[in-house]
């Protein structure tokens, strides 16, 4: 009986070690991505200041490479500034908030889709409410969006990804927020541009 107890304690310690290692790895990747994003934003601001290029032309021509951290997402209520990385594959989501490559970017007048893990970048996401804001800092400017509605959909519901006829920041994460294992649903926040 004592050996079984020791075995369970050993398994528990190993599991905690692996979990701790993964958390530290995610945090390091996110810190590096945030530095890369801030450098890209600063570079864009400097280029914009030097060039005579029209801002609308800059917005339309902007591109990011897959896995590149190119912008930041600030969530004022949670006191977080997170890197936005191009792509929603597992490698991109390990580095920060993923931007769905098929969706547009701020200032381009359609659906902008961002996604992140509930247990890394979007920890405490359940504290957000209607009226809270997201601030996206791009290399060509800052965009503020206010959450106007939320919904919960099954994990395989792709109807969320669609043309909306106007600029909408759609932010998704797994749901329930404190679920152990692969979550069966997705929490969707729809945020609309705040007039300057």
TrEMBL record:
<dbReference type="InterPro" id="IPR005754">
    <property type="entry name" value="Sortase"/>
</dbReference>
<dbReference type="GO" id="GO:0016787">
    <property type="term" value="F:hydrolase activity"/>
</dbReference>
<feature type="active site" description="Acyl-thioester intermediate">
    <location>
        <position position="174"/>
    </location>
</feature>
<dbReference type="Pfam" id="PF04203">
    <property type="entry name" value="Sortase"/>
</dbReference>
<dbReference type="InterPro" id="IPR023365">
    <property type="entry name" value="Sortase_dom-sf"/>
</dbReference>
<dbReference type="InterPro" id="IPR053525">
    <property type="entry name" value="Sortase_D"/>
</dbReference>
<dbReference type="InterPro" id="IPR001261">
    <property type="entry name" value="ArgE/DapE_CS"/>
</dbReference>
<keyword id="KW-0378">Hydrolase</keyword>
<feature type="active site" description="Proton donor/acceptor">
    <location>
        <position position="117"/>
    </location>
</feature>
<protein>
    <recommendedName>
        <fullName>Class D sortase</fullName>
    </recommendedName>
</protein>
<dbReference type="InterPro" id="IPR041999">
    <property type="entry name" value="Sortase_D_1"/>
</dbReference>
